[in-house]
Amino acid sequence: MVCLRSPLPPAQTLEQRRRNAKFAKEQESRMGKSEDQMKKKVREVKKSPVSFFWIALLGFVIFGGLVFEALSRFFS
């Protein structure tokens, strides 16, 4: 009787090796850090110091004034 199974485990594919290396690197960077420290790494979305309303109002005043001035010169 011939044994068809090899005693060695199946080889990893290149993609599996890459993902395993990435996972190991992430795990090493987490060693010795608490959960709170890991949560702080999540970046917060930076807010503009000026709200969208004020930017829109300023744009309307500047560009709206230009449009109204151009229309008044065109029709007069």
TrEMBL record:
Membrane topology of this protein: Single-pass membrane protein
Residues spanning the membrane: 52-71
Biased composition (Basic and acidic residues): 15-39
Alphabetical list of InterPro entries matching this protein: ER_stress-assoc (IPR010580)
Region (Disordered): 15-40
Localization (cell): Membrane; Endoplasmic reticulum membrane
GO cellular component: endoplasmic reticulum membrane
Family: Belongs to the RAMP4 family.
Described function: Interacts with target proteins during translocation into the lumen of the endoplasmic reticulum. Protects unfolded target proteins against degradation and facilitate correct glycosylation.
Name listed for the protein in its UniProt record: Stress-associated endoplasmic reticulum protein
Organism ancestry: Eukaryota, Fungi, Dikarya, Ascomycota, Pezizomycotina
